[in-house]
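Re: duplicated header lines in exported structure tokens

Our pipeline writes sequence and tokens for each protein into one text file. With two proteins the header for the second block appears twice in some exports. Here is an export where it did not happen, for reference. First protein block:
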Amino acid sequence: MELWPAIDIRAGKCVRLLKGEFSAETVYGDPLEQAEAFVAAGASRLHVVDLDAARDGGSPNREIVLGLVSAVAVPVQVGGGVRDVSAATSLLDAGVARVVVGTAALERPEVLVDIVERWPGRVLVGLDHRLVAGPDGGLRRQLAVRGWTAGSDRDLEAVLQDLEPLELAGVVVTDIERDGTEKGPDLAGLEHVLGLTAHPVVASGGVSLVTDLKALGGLVSGGRHLAGVIVGRALLSGAMSLKEAVTVCGR
């Protein structure tokens, strides 16, 4: 299970949000310094998100992101604001290993197809969801867009089915209500996702303890395990050391 230490960027700073709320922000300093610290501590890959771009589009932190990518000698996957072929190409041509497409995958699926056809195996789809009440009174996993500031009319399960024919690098599945809370990952939900898709699944949201990583590593459905896990606040706050995380994940 690959470990992806996370660096979220807002207004040029490394930050973490609580449940995706821009009003609930903790600042952790300079993104490049944090990236270099992660790599020095043993990280072999990084997950970077431009939060401003995710919410508003454009590329407000692009210079910082690309500076980080060029400064570290590990693969970096980048999300936030990748809403057309041009945005994906500019990142991948500049040395980004993989891009994460979220809003465009739901609002303009034809754009996702174009990006994947041009860059097969180097695109992940971000599936960020909340549990909401469905029309039948039950709960549904509603996907969010635009930096989690808006809901969509799509459910996680239906979109996973639509994505099956595409040559993706995987899907990043985030339970928004757990993200940044360090309350533990959604084990049951992630196991459910593993059983629904043949794509590699990267878990995100809620990881706090080494025991969380062990539990994620032990998830299996149909003989398949999680491909990776993204960890942010727990590493930045010191609740978990990167060395511990790398040891548990194994890579």
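Second protein block, exported in the same file:
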Amino acid sequence: MAGGRKGSLAEGIRLYTVKRWDKALVELLAVNTERFTPEENIELAYYLGLCYTKLERYDDALLYLEQVVTSGKDVLRIYQCRMTLAYIYVITSRTKMAEFELKRLSNSGFESAQLYATLAYAAWVQKRYKQAVEYYEKALDLDENNANALNGLGFVLVDSNIDLIRGLRCCKKAVDLKPQNAAYLDSLGWAYYKNGELLEARTWLRRAHEAAPEQKEIKEHLKIVTGG
């Protein structure tokens, strides 16, 4: 430990709770675990894994989240860590590993809208569009107002030309539920474009770009729709 400083698990958790993830990580890494019980070690691994995830240091996060999954006893916490593992695998293009984690949860009876929405996203990444639609529909069967699933379903339906009108309807509902979400604004703009409504498409894609000007996909959609 630098300078002999000792961290506090409780303080690290507090910092994580108030979203000061970089400071929480420093605090947690400085904790002296010599007298920790196995349960306290798992608690520490859990929060280290979450901090690394929030800071997008995914390889480090995997090491700690796997500790919780293999050695933890809290069923809900293990569920959360498996979901987080699946999320990391999806965004780091390890979609088959993501599906493995999610299907283990599903087979164990842990169904949720979030689980099926993540499975749907993994299927979409692999261009299995019809399966993605099926998973998003399962998510909505469990939670008909799940904005993430509505947005995902709407985008897949329009982007793959499966059902342009239904896709637009889903995207509208997602934006109604979360009108400030840049990804949902982008999907709605793209849905209008795919339906041939260029004025509406430009309006919504410009709003999406204003909300997230650095987002690559939004910039690409806006460029296509505006011709510039």
